[in-house]
Amino acid sequence: MLFNSISFLVFFPIVFILYWFVTNKSLKTQNWLLLFASYYFYSCWDWRFLFLLAFSTGLDYLTGLKIYRSDSQLGKKIWLVISIGINLGFLGFFKYYNFFAASFVDFIGVFGLKASYTTLNIILPVGISFYTFHGLSYVLDIYNKKIEPTTNWVEYSLFVSFFPLLVAGPIERATHLLPQVEKARTFRYQQAVDGLKQFLWGLIKKIVIADNCAEYANAIFNNTEQYSGLVLVWGAILFAFQIYGDFSGYTDMALGTARLFGFELLKNFNYPYFSRNIAEFWKRWHISLSSWFRDYLYIPLGGSRGSLWMTIRNTFIIFLVSGFWHGANWTFIVWGGLNALFIMPSVIWKKKNRETQVVAENSLLPSLKETGQLLLTFGLATFAWIFFRAESLGHAGEYISRMFLFGSDPNPFHYPELRSSRICAMLLVPFLCVEWLGRKNNYAIETLGLEWPRIIRWSIYGLLVYCIGMYMNTGGAEFIYFQF
Amino acid sequence: MKQFLKASAGFGVFALILYTCLLVLNKRFLPQRLMPNTFKYDTASDFTATRLHEADSTENVDLLILGSSHAYRGYDTEFLAKQTGLKTFNLGTSAQTLKQTEILLEHYISRLNPKYVVLDIYPALLDNDGIESMCQLLSVEVLTKNMVYEALCTFDIRVYNTLLYTLVNKLFHFSSDFKDKSIPGEKYVKGGYVRSYIAEYEDAPFPASSLKISEEQEISFTRIISMLKERNIKYIMLQAPLPKERYSSYLNNDELDNTLKGFGNYYNFNKEKSLPRSFFMDQSHINAKGVYLYNKYVLEKLRTIYQSTNLSRN
């Protein structure tokens, strides 16, 4: 079930009404309702994998308790290893088996050895990377004595499988979400209105921006050999906005939906394309994953506390692992590596983190220097996205090399199949303006027109609804991050 | 909570009114390219409005032709009437899938009351979502109960926009901007046929593809046949000529023919003959020259359901 589907339009009001009108007297019943709704939500994709979700939940719930109750450090460690081993084992099997088998055969082939392997037709369970990381953070936090385990199985299950975040995050922390699950929620008008507004903006990002860009980005990436020069540059730019609209749009819808049930989820995006360097970009893109790797991998490895070489090594490790988390393909690993490379100037010269500082905070437009920094950062991020989108390293190589060929017509709008991609350019300009004007907020339209009369405010939201009706892409592309 | 529900409902009504106003205003004043999710009727000279208007004032025909543009461009009502003595009407509309054929047949069957039906099958439409055709029929104000229900069931924003726009036009008696457009070389013939003297076939690659009937279309197909049988209307199914290159790009023509034969008498012109390029107006449709030849073939096949000496040979 997708947030932008008719089935969600039916599912959501039913759960909302039951939640606030029928089960509102008892926290326990509300949590049961949300848990049932979440499992139903997940089963709409493939009910067979409910067992995997339930098993993973049960495993982390039990190992969390065992770690906490073990008297010895060795006992704690054993339970931790069991939890991590089984969680990563599932993830490895479903996500990486074919990749490792193929890579191994290729590798020994270099030495003249031949081997065969069986490719398994494995279906990747939706959201496995997300809920596995939820569970792992819970167990690791207990091991590191940051939290105490919950003894309420329903509350823990809801923390892992709460439907707005189940299939594509944000990757929540027990320290943040579990207390909200345990505490009675009251309906707050402003929070609910905020939720609806954020959902609306997320919907625009997904079905107007991302899906329209996807149509032409796919056309260009799938027929790389037919194009060159600026057409391929246009394709990469379209993909950059596709993935931003797709993932941050999904996140906005998830956060908005959660708000309507009285929950506040972690912020996952903070206007990443308004970053002045790649380090800042990574503080603003998929924040819940970056901070997960920072807390559970980068810091335990020593972070930036050791020598410069150690910091460089650790930075490369988390970016390569992060790339690999996205998928079993060398393209993701190279994408991670490239980002690590691009971040090096900030690591080597230890530039101060400016993630909390908004670009051109006190002015309407950025300075010339800031404009240059924004464009360079966007250019580097977009260049790296080529690897993320390409089918293989060979494809990425061909794409990049053809970008520097200027043999054929450089104007993408001269190609009949790309002529309508002008609509993307037409949509991206106002979209970026709204995002720019709202860059200090949690989401772009959070404070838009708040001080104006209701009729004007409603007209603005109505206009956004009209934009959806007029410009939504009818092709209906899936969410990119579902595959991870 | 009460305040929230009241505000949400209020905004819902406000947004719908604003949406409708913007849709009507923009549709009239903005160029089509700025409104991709609306339907522009006058892009094709298919005379649907004229045809349906004529259908509304026609009663009791002998021979009814149904199908897509291959129907209204491929079956000359004048010629067929002259040759058979049968009062003939062509109810073809652009990109008409079996779903729309069913809707139109339900709507017109009592009025037109045909004795014989020719159902033209354009194989590429058997798996089509029917959105284009649905929008077109809505835009010429085919607002039957069944049509509105089917339109709502499409869950497609283009159909909803067209439906809303047409409803507003009808409700407020606005003059419709959906007007038939005539282009040089084409002429509407009484009875629904569009005669074309154009011969602009241009070479183009036809990527290989497999044909199939979608589940939804198959359901409509079965309902159409039941409807015809219930009323004791004799019918045949025909596949009109396609350029040789296009026809051969379909990989499973034989398989499809066998499936279609399961629904009744079915004849595929392309399996028996092929026409040279000069007989086509474009890469898909025959022109008047092609129609002349093809309609002789149609007459032959009509004999299978119409056993009369009236069917003279030219």
From TrEMBL, chain A:
GO molecular function: acyltransferase activity
Location relative to the cell: Cell membrane
Membrane topology classification: Multi-pass membrane protein
Transmembrane segments: 6-22, 34-58, 78-97, 104-133, 332-349, 458-482
Matches recorded under Pfam families: MBOAT (PF03062)
UniProt similarity note: Belongs to the membrane-bound acyltransferase family.
Protein name: D-alanyl-lipoteichoic acid acyltransferase DltB, MBOAT superfamily
From TrEMBL, chain B:
Domain of life: Bacteria
Chain segments annotated as transmembrane: 6-25
UniProt keyword terms in alphabetical order: Membrane, Transmembrane, Transmembrane helix
Protein name (database record): SGNH/GDSL hydrolase family protein
